[in-house]
Amino acid sequence: NAGVTQTPKFQVLKTGQSMTLQCAQDMNHNSMYWYRQDPGMGLRLIYYSASEGTTDKGEVPNGYNVSRLNKREFSLRLESAAPSQTSVYFCASSRFGQGGSDTQYFGPGTRLTVL
Amino acid sequence: SQKIEQNSEALNIQEGKTATLTCNYTNYSPAYLQWYRQDPGRGPVFLLLIRENEKEKRKERLKVTFDTTLKQSLFHITAAQPADSATYLCALEGGGSQGNLIFGKGTKLSVKP
Fold first, then answer.
1. Taking CB atoms and an 8 Å limit, are B99 and A108 in contact across chains?
2. Is A40 on the interface with B (CB under 8 A)?
3. Cβ separation of A100 and B31 shorter than 8 Å?
4. Per-residue pLDDT of chain B (113 residues; tens, 9 = 90+)
5. In sequence order, which residues have a C-beta less than 8 Å from that of residue B80 and are 6 or more positions away?
6. What is the tally of helices (H) and strands (E) in chain A?
7. A49: helix, coil or strand?
């Protein structure tokens, strides 16, 4: 099992450019998540998908869109990148999506710099 | 809104000692609390989950306590080793839709030989 995979690992964008971060999991998990991690801010939830076909906003959704393509894949799109979106992005998945009793499995992260 | 605090950004200890990390929360009564480990350049990795009716949970050299009266969890690593050096995150259920976790900012543990 590869677990949770993310592409790309690194990306540099110019302000205004768009890009899509890809995430896939091979654990047959129902729920998937996108976080961003910034120094001094910790992990903050951007969007999540409790199950295939559903998506919901997290704490910091502005400037992002997501697509739950199928049970395995959950992508994050930046339509018009801004320097404030410079961050490390983590995708995660969990088996049931049942609140605090469900552990999350994280991918290796994407380091995004917006100039 | 829920607030979770790990009141030490960094903790330095000597090899062989016990590391104790603290996680406090307010405005909430979670039924579960989780601890994760994060190494530089990597995603967090789950370590332990403790339920509100469990006072203590152990896994090898790790021990977690959960005091719902104090609204606090303590994370202990006994006989700490340099390989235990990492950032440790506590997380509790967000109270919103299913599956959400709120993470603390983490405590960076350094174990010196």
1. no
2. yes
3. yes
4. 778 899 778 999 999 999 999 999 988 888 889 999 999 999 999 999 999 899 899 999 999 999 999 999 999 999 999 999 999 999 988 765 555 788 999 999 999 99
5. B13, B15, B16, B17, B18, B19, B61, B109, B111
6. 0, 11
7. strand
